[in-house]
Predict the 3D structure of the following.
Amino acid sequence: EIDSVIEKHINYAFSEHLGYLTQCPTNLGTGMRASVMLHLPALTGKGAMRRLSTTVAKLGLTLRGSFSDGNEGAGNIYQLSNQVTLGISEEAALQNLSSIAMQIVAQEKQARALLIKDEDYLDRIYRAYGILKSAYKLTSKELMNLISYVHVGVSEGILDIPAEKLRSMTVLLQPATLNTAAGKVLSQTERDVLRSQKVREELA
């Protein structure tokens, strides 16, 4: 609906044969990129991400790590998005994305059921929670990795923390966000100290 409203006031480059003409040829057609963020610690721990990425690519999707420059997701968070925009409708693209996302979620749940039976992994969950509540300094990478463990603990009913609070910290405690909140460019040490302070306040 938003797209239709904007199109009444802006002349998009459009071809009846190819659809929307974008700067990047890979976005020809619908011009739409739809994404889902997925937390996949169990599948990552199993070493299944490369295989999974190859599989979804054959289905017209791409799976890459979020909050990082490579394919490995910081904090085990990945972005699943449609790769095909030409010769497919927006509705079909969304249905395909939703269907594959739910299949991946089901695989993650199965893997987690086995993971939380591992006492060493349970120990990591509690240790991660302890560090977050007491650390004086936290790098962004360390924060993401620790929250990943705690998030598993929350989703499996091991820890009683609002999941939304963890998701909020994941976004609001990134380097650029801390700089913006402070109104100046902080040094790495200043960010790490401020980040841990905010985490302690959230988990108090």
The longest strand covers residues 77-82. The CA atoms of residues 44 and 61 lie 18 Å apart.
